[in-house]
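Why do we bother with holo predictions? Because pocket geometry can differ from the apo form. Keep that in mind while you read this record for 2P0.
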Amino acid sequence: MPGPDVVTAVAYPNIALVKYWGKRDERLVLPCADSLSMTLDVFPTTTHVQLTPHAQDIVIVDGVTAQGEMARRITSFLDLVRKRARSKRCARVETRNTVPVGAGLASSASGFAALALAAATAYGLPTEPKELSRLARRGSGSAARSVFGGFVIWHAGSPDAPDPDRSSYAEPLTSACTDLALVAVLVDTGPKPIPSREAMRRTVATSPLFPDWLMQTRHDMTVMRRALAQGDITTVGEIAERNALGMHETMAGAVPPVRYLTPASHRVLEEVCRLRDQGVGAWATVDAGPNIKVLCSGGDAEQVAVRLRELSRRPAVVARSGPGAALYGTQ
Ligand code: 2P0
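The structure, written out:
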C-alpha cells in the first residue's frame, strides 16, 4: 500500500484518428506532422512515484522489476524531470497497466502520461496540462495526447520556431461527435514483432511512400477537424480508416517491410466492410499491432461488438471518450 508521500496518477490510452508516424527529431520526440486522437475510458494505467534516498531508481511494471529498454526509457525520463527540477533524488516508480504492454494498445501513451503527471508532481515541476503534454511527449510521442480527455490534437510544432520543443504540445478539441464509440477487438495480445519506435524510424528512413503519407495525413487532418466540429461521424470514420490503412501501407514500403497486420486482423477488417455493406456505420482503425479498433456510433456499439466477438480472442471491449490524466482522487 503506497504511503502518504507517494504521488499517484491515472491516465487512459488514446487512439489516433489521424496517426502520428514519423519523427523529425528523435531526441526531442518531435513529429513530422500533427495528429489527432480520442482518449478512451477503458484500459487505464495507474502510476505511483515516490522519491527515495536510494542511489538508483526502482521501476516496477505490472508487479515485475522493469528490465532492458523499458527500464532505460523510464529512467531517462526521470533524468529529464530531475534535470528540470534540479534534483538528484532517485525515485521508486510502480506502474500498473490494464492492457498487455507492447501489443499496440497504446500502453506507452497512458503510461508516460501517468508517469509525467506523477513525476512532475513528486519533483515539484509545473503540472499545467499544456506544459505536461510537452513533458509527456519526451517519454512517448502519443503520451502528449493522453494528458487530455476527449478529442485531442498534438501539434507537430515548427522546425523554424526559436524553441522547437516549446512549439510541440497537445490541446483538447471541441467536437460535436459526442456519440462516437470505439470497439476494441483483441485478436492477439502478445508483444509486437518490432517496437513502434524502431518501425517508425525505419519507415522514415527507407519507405519511398513516406513523403506521400505526410502529404495525405496533412490533408486528412483538415478534413477530420471539420468533420469533428460538424458532428459528421461518417466522414470521421472514413478518414480514420483510410489514414490508418495508409500508415500500414507506408510501413509495408519500408526496407525490410514492417508488417503488424495478421490474417486475424484482415478477417476483422473484412467483417467491418461487410457491416458497412449491411448499412451499419462502422470503420476500422489500427495502430502498431494487429488489434483492430472499430469506430461507430454509441447506439451501434453493442451490435458491432457482438458481430466481431467470434473473430476476437477476448470479448470485444466498447469504449467511449474518456478523461485526461489526473492525480488519484481528483478525477
Ligand atoms: C499514434 N502510434 O498516433 C501512432 C499510430 C502507433 C501507430 O504513436 O516513439 O509509442 O514513443 O514517440 O507514441 C505509437 O508510437 O512512439 C504511436 P514514440 P509511440 O498513436
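The two ends are 20 Å apart (CA to CA).
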